[in-house]
């Protein structure tokens, strides 16, 4: 089973200064992004074979900006393929999460590195929109368009050719026995 020790050794081998949080089976490090620095937390769950990576925004979303932020994040999450934003409506903590359930497979350092890299890349991509909303920006659609139109093709948006896919129609056309086999 993967544990905090594996996370810590793997990240330290990459040259990161890691802080261990044994009570949470979590390790953290500071990521130096292009726009700012923030803390990244990697957590191993026991006994289930899962790892979660969280990028934690260094600012708390003020109470009067949380509804606008919830709308921004809901709109952003709708198109994300990997990962999602989370906002605690009570205290304003904002984070981005990527995770993996690796079942009976062995989690490699390469897979962990890709999970972390995707997390920090996606978080950084949306930082301008997030921080504009914290500062009072209300044109959410324009803010999202700006960050999403400049996004590299890194897999965190729905490909254009799938945008208009009618998933309800497809579910109706698939034989129920086939649906069970897919699940």
Description:
A hairpin with a 6-residue loop joins strand 5 and strand 6. This protein has a 6-stranded antiparallel sheet. It is built from 6 helices and 6 strands, in the order H-E-E-E-E-H-E-E-H-H-H-H. The C terminus is likely disordered. Helix 2 packs across helix 3 and helix 3 packs antiparallel against helix 4. It has a single domain, classed as 2-Layer Sandwich (Yope Regulator, Chain: A), CATH 3.30.1460. It is elongated and about 45 Å long. The two termini are about 25 Å apart. With about 180 residues, the protein is α+β, with helices and mostly antiparallel strands.
Describe the protein's topology.
Layout: H1 4-13, E1 19-21, E2 26-32, E3 37-45, E4 50-56, H2 66-79, E5 84-87, E6 94-101, H3 109-134, H4 140-149, H5 167-173, H6 176-182
Antiparallel strand pairs: 1-2, 2-3, 3-4, 4-6, 5-6
Helix pairs in contact: 2-3, 3-4
């Amino acid at each position: 089973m993967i544990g905090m020790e594996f996370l810590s050794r793997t990240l330290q081998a990459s040259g990161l200064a890691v802080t261990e949080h044994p009570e949470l089976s979590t390790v953290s490090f500071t990521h130096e992004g292009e726009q700012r620095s923030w803390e990244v937390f990697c957590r191993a769950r026991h006994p289930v074979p899962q790892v979660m990576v969280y990028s934690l925004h260094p600012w708390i979303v003020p109470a009067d900006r949380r509804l606008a932020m919830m709308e921004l994040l809901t709109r952003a999450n709708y198109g994300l393929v990997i990962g999602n934003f989370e906002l605690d409506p009570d205290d304003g903590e904002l984070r981005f999460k990527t995770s993996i359930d690796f079942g009976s497979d062995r989690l490699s350092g390469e897979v962990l590195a890709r999970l972390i890299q995707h997390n920090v890349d996606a978080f950084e991509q949306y930082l301008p929109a997030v921080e504009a909303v914290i500062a009072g920006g209300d044109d959410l659609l324009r803010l999202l368009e700006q960050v999403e139109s400049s996004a590299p093709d890194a897999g965190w948006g729905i490909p254009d050719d799938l945008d208009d896919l009618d998933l309800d129609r497809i579910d109706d056309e698939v034989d129920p026995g086939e649906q069970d086999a897919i699940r």
